[in-house]
């Protein structure tokens, strides 16, 4: 029997996007009128009520670091902790640069890649309803911030059109500041490989520090054939690199990379480059900035070298302050706290024992913080550098542009009002607060056609098709990208004996079949045959990534009297005081790789062994489903057929509970608040 060419999918096709309002007569991009009373953040965003723990320390060299923004430039509309938008950040950077000038120290602003695949602002272009490529409208907004150093992420390389957009537009916008030391692209006009950005940047900071910077992507192999990634171990042997490291006048190396900074992470190739530099320059400070694993992390490499990783999705802004880089250089600035930590792992032996290390004593001191991405945080730390109000003309213009772009892309078009928050991992699997309990209901309600509505159905999907928590409040077109962007279609096998169909879930979970965790290896077996799949996953590269989104593993709900709010609780090589806003821990519960929803099964759940059921599953796992069935004695083949999938928007539209408060949805506080389990 062949897998049916899905009637399910065709029933869903028409539901995939909301109706576009007629906006052809509007040209928000031409609207440049500024007023001083523009509402800060996005009009529908919230601010937090919790202040940071205290002022930042400033040293000789200070760095603001973003990574893995993945299109979240509007901020988190439905989460208080992360309500700032890119315009607020633009204003903040201007104030911090002024503060650095006032303190007579250096400030660098750094980003380490992954600008695509995560939110509607980047992902709602290059789709059926809006031509072009992913990131086409979000990248120009991102570019309003004049970074000092940037590097490329794997999400710039899955799809050739995005890689070329990065090469032709983004890299040109930043010129010598965009570093892709091991990433090349085939120039379509010459056929030759060229570096997407520059291999390195040697420059003098405003205060005279001589910096040699590199930008190194981890050993990524899932890229399209438009680009070429040189493994770090090979890159460090190239003569240009050796020459750059041998440069006589370098006060510090700045090594940025879309690359984990944790020394235990198997995909961390920053340490390969670190070792290569140390072999030539045993005593020059090396400051590293990483990303990709979406966590807050800080690692000590040796007494002159540390690495900072600054989270994901415009939830985190990283801060590193360093003093003592050049003993003849600037002293610590006065009137502000200064870095006090030696580069050694707090309370234990350094993790760097197996690495090469510097050979002379160090007088360097370090300070790291992870800032929550909200207005209160930005205003708090900008204080003292604000001659006028916080908002800058440019920041306001960016905010306004984001609002206009959201409108242009119809991102705020409402499907329904989510009456509560459902999360991926903050509540036990399939409990009331678990998104999989919602999916159980939504799949059962929407994956059905009239002709076969009376047949019992088992619907099997991989849990990995959900990308982010579903927050209480408006479920709009934007949310459909944020929560479940994948375009896998539903296929089905009719009339499978119940005793076979009912064993598929267990067979998938236990067997050697593609699963979320298998996908987490660096190349995760994707090909360009189905870019819609791979472009949407940011591969977790190690198991430690899987358990460290906003909290650390092993969490159970700890109920305690506290005025703190739920959020990041980070432990790193300097200890537990890195989070700028003190939070309570959001519990973490693991969940399986696959799950099943039952439709039209008898109320008592009993079916005879031979009773025919329709077995429905995502095309993405069709091969595995067929393998399991045949392993159980069935005889099925797989007929691949890809179409679109959009059951949550459909469910939001058909559920009376979700429609009750349209269009004025009550918005919740965010993920981790009011957990029901
Ligand atoms: Zn990422
Ligand atoms: Zn990445």
List the helices and strands and how they pair.
Elements: H1 7-13, E1 61-66, H2 86-103, E2 106-111, H3 120-123, H4 138-142, E3 149-151, H5 160-174, E4 178-179, E5 183-186, E6 193-195, E7 200-204, E8 210-215, E9 227-229, H6 232-235, H7 239-245, E10 252-256, H8 270-280, E11 286-290, E12 296-302, E13 305-310, E14 316-323, E15 365-372, H9 375-382, H10 393-408, E16 414-418, H11 435-446, E17 457-462, E18 473-476, H12 477-483, E19 490-497, H13 498-501, H14 504-510, H15 531-534, H16 543-546, E20 565-567, E21 583-585, E22 594-599, E23 612-618, H17 622-631, H18 647-654, H19 656-659
Parallel strand pairs: 1-2, 2-3, 3-4, 8-10, 10-11, 11-13, 17-23, 20-21
Antiparallel strand pairs: 1-14, 5-6, 5-9, 7-8, 12-13, 14-15, 16-18, 17-22, 19-23
Helix pairs in contact: 2-9, 2-10, 11-18
Bound molecules: zinc ion (ZN) (2 copies).
């Amino acid at each position: 029997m062949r897998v049916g060419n899905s009637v399910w999918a065709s029933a869903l096709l028409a539901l995939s996007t909301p109706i576009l309002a007629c906006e052809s007569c509007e040209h928000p991009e031409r609207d440049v009128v500024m007023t001083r009373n523009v509402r800060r953040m996005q009009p529908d965003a919230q601010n937090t009520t919790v202040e940071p723990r205290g002022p930042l320390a400033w040293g000789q060299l200070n760095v603001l670091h973003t990574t893995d923004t993945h299109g979240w430039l509007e901020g988190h509309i439905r989460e208080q902790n992360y309500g700032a938008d890119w315009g607020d950040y633009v204003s903040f950077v201007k104030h911090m640069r002024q503060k650095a000038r006032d303190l007579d120290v250096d400030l660098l602003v750094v980003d380490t890649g992954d600008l695509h695949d995560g939110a509607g602002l980047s992902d709602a272009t290059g789709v059926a309803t809006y031509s072009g490529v992913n990131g086409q409208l979000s990248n120009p907004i991102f570019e309003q911030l004049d970074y000092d150093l940037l590097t490329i992420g794997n999400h710039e390389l899955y799809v050739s059109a995005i890689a070329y957009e990065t090469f032709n537009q983004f890299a040109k916008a930043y010129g010598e500041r965009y570093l892709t030391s091991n990433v090349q692209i085939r120039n379509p006009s010459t056929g030759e490989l060229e570096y997407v950005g520059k291999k390195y940047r040697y420059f003098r900071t405003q205060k005279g520090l001589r910096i040699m910077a590199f930008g190194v992507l981890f050993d990524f192999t899932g890229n399209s054939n438009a680009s070429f990634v040189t493994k770090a171990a090979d890159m460090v042997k190239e003569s240009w690199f050796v020459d750059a490291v041998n440069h006589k006048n370098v006060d510090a190396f700045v090594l940025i990379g879309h690359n984990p900074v944790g020394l235990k992470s198997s995909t961390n190739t920053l340490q390969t480059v670190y070792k290569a530099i140390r072999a030539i320059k045993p005593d020059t400070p090396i400051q590293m900035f990483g990303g990709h694993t979406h966590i807050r992390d800080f690692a000590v490499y040796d007494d002159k070298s540390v690495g900072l990783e600054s989270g994901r999705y415009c939830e985190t802004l990283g801060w590193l302050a360093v003093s003592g880089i050049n003993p003849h250089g600037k002293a610590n600035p006065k009137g502000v706290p200064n870095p006090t930590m030696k580069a050694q792992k707090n309370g234990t032996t350094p993790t760097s024992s197996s690495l090469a290390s510097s050979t002379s004593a160090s007088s360097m001191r370090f300070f790291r913080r992870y800032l929550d991405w909200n207005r209160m945080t930005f205003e708090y730390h900008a204080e003292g550098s604000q001659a006028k109000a916080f908002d800058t003309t440019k920041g306001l213009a960016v905010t306004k542009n984001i609002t206009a772009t959201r409108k242009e892309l119809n991102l705020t078009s409402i499907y329904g009002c989510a009456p509560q928050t459902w999360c991926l991992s903050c509540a036990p699997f399939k409990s009331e607060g678990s998104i999989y309990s919602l999916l159980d209901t939504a799949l059962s309600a929407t994956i059905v056609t009239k002709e076969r509505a009376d047949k019992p159905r088992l619907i099997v999907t991989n849990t990995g098709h959900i990308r982010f928590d579903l927050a209480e409040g408006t479920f709009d077109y934007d949310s459909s990208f944020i929560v479940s962007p994948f375009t896998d279609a539903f296929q089905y096998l009719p009339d499978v004996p119940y005793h076979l169909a009912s064993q598929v879930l267990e067979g998938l979970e236990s067997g050697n079949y593609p699963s979320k965790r298998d996908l987490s290896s660096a190349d995760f077996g994707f090909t360009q045959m189905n870019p819609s799949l791979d472009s949407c996953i940011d591969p977790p590269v190690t198991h430690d990534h899987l358990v460290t989104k906003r909290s650390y593993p092993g969490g159970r709900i700890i109920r305690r009297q506290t005025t703190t709010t739920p959020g990041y609780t980070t432990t790193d090589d300097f200890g537990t005081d890195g989070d700028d806003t003190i939070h309570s821990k959001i519990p973490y519960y693991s969940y399986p790789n696959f799950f099943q929803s039952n439709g039209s099964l008898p109320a008592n759940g009993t079916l005879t062994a031979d009773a025919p059921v329709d077995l429905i599953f995502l095309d993405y796992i069709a091969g595995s489903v067929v393998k399991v069935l045949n392993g159980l004695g069935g005889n099925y083949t797989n007929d691949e057929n890809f179409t679109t999938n959009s059951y949550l928007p459909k469910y939001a539209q058909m559920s009376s509970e979700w429609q009750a408060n349209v269009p004025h949805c009550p918005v919740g506080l965010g993920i981790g608040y009011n957990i029901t389990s």
